[in-house]
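Our platform keeps sequence and structure together, in a single record for each protein. This encoding replaces a full spatial description with a residue-level series of whole-number codes. We quote a single record here, exactly as it is kept in our systems:
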Amino acid sequence: MRGYHDESYGDGFADVYDEWYADITDVDATTATLAELAAGGRVLELGVGTGRLAAPLAHRGLHVTGVDTSTAMLDRLRGKPGGDDVRVVVGDMVDGLPDGPFDLVFVAYNTFFSLLTPARQQACCHAVAQRLTEGGVFAIEAFVPEVAPDTASSLTVRSVTADRVVLSVSTSDPEHQTAEGQYIDITEAGGVKLRPWSIRWATPGQLDDMAAAAGLHLTDRWSGFDRTPFGPDSSRHVSVYRR
């Protein structure tokens, strides 16, 4: 997407992220599993955003660091109850990571796919592996891509109220494993706001290969952080890799 950069997503969604995505996954189940994987050690979240998971993890007594390119997102995190308990770092998921070491590094929902090339995704795995303790864990939560033969585009309605309409426009390129789009947020009082996003997806097998190249091996794969078994019909996965 022309003009799209590392901060575009965070800057476009920071003011609505908690409203739109607070319930995208079960926070209690997710943080319980993450806390167990961390085993009381130090935690790093990649793409921490507004702290949907980082703040509850810190509330559990863990030492949590979050990295994000968007200062708008991080300002929202700092303003939350318990937000000051999370150490924040302004930086990307490859070159901006703090030194560590960490016992758990995780990237939630589809945030890993915001790295827009295979090379950047591989570089992230290497950067994480270098910061993990021996036996440390890298957990990735993402969707399982569906096989689609052709480039596709769509225009759908996300929501409609008396004074607001949100439209979703997207296009995908299966050959390059990319998708991008805009949420077009139209309000009577505020006019039009564009909220852009762009991803490069990877299959679970491709993620396994990237992890292996970085010296990490798969130990668990679930359909979610509630540890539902992963199967051929699973639309999402949590993949757990150890150094």
The chain has a mean pLDDT of 95.
